[in-house]
Amino acid sequence: MDAGELKSRSKKFALRVVRLVRVLPKSLEAQVIGKQLLRSGTSVGANYRAVCRARSNAEFVSKLGVVLEEADEATFWLELLEEAGIFPATKLEELKHEAEELVRIFAASRITAEKKLSRSNLKSEILNAIEET
Question: What is the pLDDT of residue 41?
């Protein structure tokens, strides 16, 4: 999956979160959880766009970590809505599945990026040691 597809997918996820929060019950607990979900769910797409503009490999890995945390947090709030009986599980199923998939994608991407960064840093250290001799 390329960056453009992931941008689109994370934006669609944010829009689905917005639509869900609009129809949550007006109870205090639903509204509090909804606000948390809205913040984390929309943050996934916004922060992924920042990942795509990273100025270095280290910044890329760092920002990707933020995206992963936000996607995982959104998953938590969706689970809480279900397990607290605030919203029907059947209506949350697809959105929860998408959140979990995004977590897996971003986790795998971060692992790959960290490995590349580690190899890059090792290469730089070796080149610096050679130059010093």
Answer: 98
Amino acid making up residue 78: L
Of residues 36 and 121, more confidence is placed in 36
* Amino acid at residue number 23: V
**Is there a contact between 7 and 48 (Cβ–Cβ < 8 Å)?**
yes
Element (H, E) at 111: helix 89-132
Number of residues that make up the chain: 133
Give the pLDDT band (50/70/90) at residue 91. very high
Eight-state DSSP code of residue 25 = -
The total number of structural domains in the chain stands at 1
d(CA 112, CA 110): 5
Domain interval for residue 33: 3-132
User: Which domain CATH number covers 7?
Assistant: 1.20.1440.60
The whole-angstrom separation of Cα 74 and Cα 53 is 23
- Paired tokens of 8: 């689109």
